[in-house]
User: What shape does this take?
Amino acid sequence: MKDRFGRTIDYMRISITDRCNLRCAYCMPHAIPHLPHSDILRYEEILRVVRSAAGLGITRFKVTGGEPFARKGAADFIAALKAEPGVACVTVTTNGTHLAEALPRLVKAGIDGVNISLDAVDPERYRQITGSDRAEMVLHAIEQCAKSGIHTKVNSVLLEDNEDQIIPLAGLAQRMNVDVRFIELMPIGCGGEYSGPDAGAALNLLKEIYPGLAPVREVRGNGPAVYSADERLLGRIGFITARSCSFCADCNRIRLTSTGLIKPCLCDGGTVDLRALLRGGATDEKITAALISAVWDKPAAHGIVGGNVTERRRMNQIGG
Ligand code: SAM
Ligand code: SF4
Assistant: This one.
């Protein structure tokens, strides 16, 4: 469906939990108070929203969190989502720490892609950023995922603390068939307390090792990443330039939080409360109408460039 600016909205990011087993400094550095189970949408409730969305032409879905595999039944939910009529594409974004157990179920479900977040290859650097010793485990999960034939992407946020990891992270795309995407740090939640290089600085560093790195015109997923290729790399290098270059003119998405809020824009605090509708006996038509109104209300652009971010939630509550 189209929003008021003529953009086609066909992609929904679904956060199934705000909880996470890692403590990434820029995202969720401390444990969070547990929300009562009843605050979180049940899987059946999410699937009801998906059916309404699919009826509107929103046919591509990303499952995210918090850490999606921290929620019981996540892999089965992903399989159920993939099997829904009208659902064309299902991918997941994970920190990779529980991926190995979920992988066989995801392969069987025919998942269309897995994004694995890894901000450092070096175990000590990884521990500094995430508070966890699981760098090796995540690297292994990335390798297993790529070997399984699933389209695998590595997501790395650009931080002052991991500038020395940019080259080793890109090296993953040389060792195996994965795309490595560098994401500019956004001033959302705890992200506002940190800083990091922009994509241009990262590209300059990468060109010292991969001088042939050149942009390619390829669509490799649902997102705003722009990709570059080098003959020495099996996968692509991607950049998500939320800060240095607004990609809002091509925005294609809305978000559903684990508590049932539809977020028309990542950086805008405005939401539509679907949980109240779902639990208040709303008909399918009412759910559909709420989605239409959320899409219609999408702002023209996020406020990062103008310093006008009104979202006060943390990224683990939004899903990235
Ligand atoms: N836990 C999963 C993971 O880490 O992939 C899924 C949720 S996490 C919020 C989704 C993505 O958002 C991760 O790649 C994470 O690095 C990224 N992220 C979190 N905070 C960010 C920020 N302030 N700016 C840019 N990306 C951020
Ligand atoms: Fe957890 Fe992902 Fe946030 Fe890290 S970025 S704390 S893994 S939700």
The CA atoms of residues 18 and 317 lie 5 Å apart. The two ends are 22 Å apart (CA to CA).
